[in-house]
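Query structure, 178 tokens:
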């Protein structure tokens, strides 16, 4: 609102629809892609989200440098969709990694952690950085806060890559036993 000149009614009408639509595309798109690619190599359960998160970085640059709010909405839709690429594959991993009798509890724990860390900690982190940067950067403090997400995104990519090694190890162990 402060930097791009968006009105509150425009945020309610456009921003929410763009983010909701992007989230749906990210979840279902990643699920579809991983279903197809994981038949050849199960590491796609980790690679697809790693690629998705890595691709958010250039889109974040576009978001920060967008000259208008419609352009900013397009750039924010891309990382939003890509940030949701982990949902379907990680839920599938949780469901397939435990016996059927433990799937409900395992999914509940996964959703609890996802909610606390991602939906609880993420906005709090961005808000704190923005508040700290406000005295120096003024209205552009939110841009500084978005930039502060870059190390978190890199850590997320590296975590998914590490998960792919674990999946490969589990595949080797399953072939050795079976």
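Result returned for the query:
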């Amino acid at each position: 609102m402060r930097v791009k000149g968006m009105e509150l009614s425009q945020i309610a009408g456009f921003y929410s629809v763009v983010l909701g639509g992007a989230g749906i595309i990210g979840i279902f798109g990643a699920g579809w892609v991983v279903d197809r690619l994981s038949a050849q190599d199960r590491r796609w359960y980790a690679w697809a989200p790693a690629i998705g998160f890595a691709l958010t970085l250039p889109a974040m640059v576009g978001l920060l440098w967008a000259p208008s709010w419609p352009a900013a909405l397009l750039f924010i839709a891309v990382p939003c969709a890509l940030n949701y690429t982990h949902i379907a594959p990680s839920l599938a991993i949780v469901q397939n990694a435990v016996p059927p009798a433990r799937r409900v509890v395992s999914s509940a724990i996964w959703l609890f952690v996802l909610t606390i860390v991602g939906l609880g900690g993420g906005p709090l982190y961005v808000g704190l950085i923005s508040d700290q940067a406000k005295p120096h950067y003024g209205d552009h403090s939110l841009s500084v806060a978005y930039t502060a997400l870059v190390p978190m995104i890199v850590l997320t990519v590296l975590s998914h890559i590490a998960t792919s090694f674990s999946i490969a190890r589990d595949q080797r162990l399953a072939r050795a036993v079976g």
